[in-house]
Inverse folding.
């Protein structure tokens, strides 16, 4: 086979594989994803912004979210509001980590798990771009962009 | 069967059908519309006397609840999750009731269970963010406990590792009637629709 034709075929094969991996959203390689990110700024006189999102683990092994950081905030913590079903008492506690089992999604939603974003390095208004850096126990990480929002009142 | 008997049977069948349809219509249109989410107390319960301060640092007591329906929620301004989310829902619900022309528009009352940090100035700045019709009150722990103990509401300060504290608290929303009586309770999780649907029903039935 002529070297040029060999190179052309190889290029096509590589392109097809890359396309297939991309089309599957990384599922073939089991790469986790962060989806539906919403970040609300604090109401006046309050201190912490809050972030909600969903982590998808399409892989075959558990992943452990161990830390989240942001270049816009000096302190980011993982928290959970635990509701006692019988009494309706809400208790918020900090979580050291969150494990997402293979094939599962972990939802961070109002009234449940969430991020507290504190100590902004500068005043942030609604519309400010944000970066969230999710770090996992296996050394991998995901960087996500978001936009600060105010809660809709009307 | 002769024609006469067929005619009688046909009239009987038509009459039975008309009667059944009429019964069904009446059953649907006179059914008692009950609240879908709120739990209405068998008998409204008078609230005890208490002495708190509102966001303008004015007295807020039982008399402050006379004359209008009130949705009362217990929380604090340093709560990043359930408290602002609930106030957002309550505010949106009030706006929808106004838009719907609801007769009894409730005021929203945030009772801060964190008087250490939630001064009147802090509360005023916080509640103002969530729109009009929202009062924010707080006060001495003993006065707060008069109100919470009578209504079964729990709150307790909880120290955080590394410093600071949070306040564990009940997430119920109380519906207080214009006679300053504890009338009904909403339990989480709730939605804007729960309040928009149930508050007018309860008010109309009282």
């Amino acid at each position: 086979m002529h070297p040029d034709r060999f190179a052309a075929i190889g290029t096509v094969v590589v392109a097809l594989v890359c396309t297939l991996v991309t089309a599957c959203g990384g599922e073939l390689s089991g790469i986790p994803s962060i989806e539906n990110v919403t970040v609300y700024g604090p109401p006046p006189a309050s201190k912490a912004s809050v972030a909600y999102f969903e982590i998808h683990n399409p892989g075959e092994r558990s992943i452990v979210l161990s830390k989240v950081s942001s270049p816009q905030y000096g302190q980011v913590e993982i928290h959970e509001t635990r509701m006692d079903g019988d009494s309706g008492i809400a208790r918020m506690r900090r979580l050291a980590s969150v494990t997402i089992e293979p094939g599962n999604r972990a939802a961070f939603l109002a009234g449940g798990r969430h991020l507290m974003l504190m100590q902004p390095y500068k005043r942030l208004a609604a519309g400010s771009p944000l970066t969230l850096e999710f770090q996992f126990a296996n050394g991998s990480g995901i960087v996500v962009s978001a936009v600060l929002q105010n809660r809709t009142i009307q | 069967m002769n024609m006469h008997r067929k005619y009688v049977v046909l009239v009987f069948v038509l009459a039975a059908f008309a009667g059944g349809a009429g019964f069904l219509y009446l059953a649907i249109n006179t059914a008692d519309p009950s609240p879908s989410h709120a739990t209405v107390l068998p008998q409204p319960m008078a609230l005890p006397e208490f002495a708190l301060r509102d966001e303008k640092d004015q007295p807020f007591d039982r008399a402050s609840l006379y004359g209008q329906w009130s949705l009362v929620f217990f929380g604090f301004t340093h709560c990043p999750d359930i408290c602002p989310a609930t106030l957002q829902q309550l505010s949106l619900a009030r706006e929808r009731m106004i838009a719907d022309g609801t007769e009894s528009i409730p005021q929203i009352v945030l009772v801060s269970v964190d008087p250490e940090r939630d001064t009147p100035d802090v509360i005023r700045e916080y509640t103002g963010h969530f729109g009009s019709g929202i009062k924010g009150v707080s006060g001495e722990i003993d006065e707060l406990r008069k109100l919470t103990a009578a209504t079964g509401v729990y709150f307790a300060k909880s120290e955080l590792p590394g410093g600071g504290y949070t306040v564990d608290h009940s997430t119920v929303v109380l519906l207080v009637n214009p006679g300053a009586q504890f009338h009904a309770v909403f339990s989480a999780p709730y939605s804007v629709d729960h309040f928009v649907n149930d508050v007018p029903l309860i008010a109309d039935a009282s």
